[in-house]
């Protein structure tokens, strides 16, 4: 079965209208696929509350405002219907507080729970309470401060009123006189000021020229200093090389056996003879300390030992006989 163009256009328009309706309500916050409960609240003034505004519980969004309706038969009270998630339990102790959500005047309904004696079902009416607007709270807190500030200003004006005004006028007058004196001084010394300015400019130019002349001289001085440093370094290196060469010569002589130190290092017999001489000298000194009389003879009175003084008697020849 073929559909005519008119039927197709009608079906397309119906589908487009349905999508538009669903999309519009979705943007307003309507959820067609979630289960919720509906409750009613009566207020004297909603203070800018609009449809789709949030319904919160302990700061968490649990629903939205579904509709707002004026009740002419009840002295123009306002009936607000809200949709709340199904698992949120409300009762006779629940209070729906209309409060400010931000500083720009946005409104929402805050559900404040209590100990319920009766559980409400969908379609029941909750107790409503309108919190003070932010402007009223700010006014209540700011008015005492403004009042105290106003009284403080009045007291200051009473204490310093005329005297302070006179002092300010005198100060301004003195400042004006000083300004006039300064203006006159500048006029009188304008020529001197011009001369000073010219001298400063000439001095600046002269300093710039002097700096240009000094730069080559500083370069030369730096070159001379570098040359002196190089000469000193070369002399030091030459002396160090000479000392190293002398040390190498001495080491070569020692290794070749030249001199006493070379013989001691290279010839073991010299070392052994020297060691033996030291040992013999040590034995001699020990014996000299134990038996000094073997080596030294002396007397206090200049004579020797009696046992050593033995004089040998010369033989006497017989006298010849007389005739």
Which features characterize this protein?
alpha/beta; 323 residues; 5 helices; disordered C terminus
Helix/strand layout:
Blueprint: H1 5-27, E1 36-43, E2 54-57, E3 60-71, E4 77-85, E5 95-100, E6 107-112, E7 125-130, H2 134-188, H3 190-256, H4 259-266, H5 268-290
Parallel strand pairs: 1-7, 2-6, 5-7
Antiparallel strand pairs: 1-4, 2-3, 3-4, 5-6
Helix pairs in contact: 3-4
Describe this structure in words.
The chain is α/β, with parallel strands linked by helices and 323 residues long. The protein has a domain at 28-131. The protein has five helices and seven strands, in the order H-E-E-E-E-E-E-E-H-H-H-H. The chain has a seven-stranded mixed β-barrel. Strand 3 (60-71) and strand 4 form a beta hairpin. Helix 3 (190-256) packs across helix 4 (259-266). The longest helix has 67 residues, at 190-256. It is elongated and about 160 Å long.
């Amino acid at each position: 079965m073929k559909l005519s163009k008119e039927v197709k256009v009608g079906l397309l328009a119906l589908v487009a209208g349905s999508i538009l309706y669903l999309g519009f309500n979705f943007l307003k916050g309507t959820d067609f696929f979630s289960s919720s409960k509906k409750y009613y609240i009566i207020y004297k003034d909603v203070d800018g509350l609009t449809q789709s505004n949030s319904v919160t519980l302990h700061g968490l969004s649990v629903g939205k405002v579904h509709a707002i309706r004026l009740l002419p038969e009840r002295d123009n009270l306002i009936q607000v219907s809200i949709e709340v998630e199904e698992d949120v339990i409300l009762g006779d102790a629940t209070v729906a507080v209309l409060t400010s959500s931000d500083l720009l005047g946005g409104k929402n309904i805050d559900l404040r729970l209590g100990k319920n004696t009766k559980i409400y079902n969908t379609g029941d009416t909750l107790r409503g309470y309108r919190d003070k607007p932010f402007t009223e709270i700010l006014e209540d807190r700011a008015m005492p401060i403004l009042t105290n500030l106003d009284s403080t200003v009045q007291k200051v004006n009473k204490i310093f009123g005329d005297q302070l005004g006179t002092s300010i006028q005198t100060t301004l007058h003195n400042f004006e006189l000083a300004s006039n004196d300064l203006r006159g001084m500048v006029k009188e010394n304008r020529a001197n000021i011009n001369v000073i300015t010219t001298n400063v400019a000439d001095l600046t130019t002269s300093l710039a020229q002097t700096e240009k002349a000094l730069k080559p001289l500083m370069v030369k001085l730096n070159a001379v200093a570098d040359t002196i440093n190089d000469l000193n370094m070369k002399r030091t290196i030459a002396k160090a090389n000479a000392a190293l060469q002398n040390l190498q010569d001495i080491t070569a002589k020692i290794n070749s056996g030249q001199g006493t130190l070379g013989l001691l290092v290279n010839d073991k017999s010299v070392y052994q003879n020297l060691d033996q001489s030291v040992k013999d000298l040590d034995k001699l000194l020990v014996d000299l300390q134990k038996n000094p009389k073997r080596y030294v003879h002396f007397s206090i009175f200049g004579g020797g030992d009696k046992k050593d003084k033995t004089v040998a008697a010369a033989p006497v020849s017989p006298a010849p006989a007389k005739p």
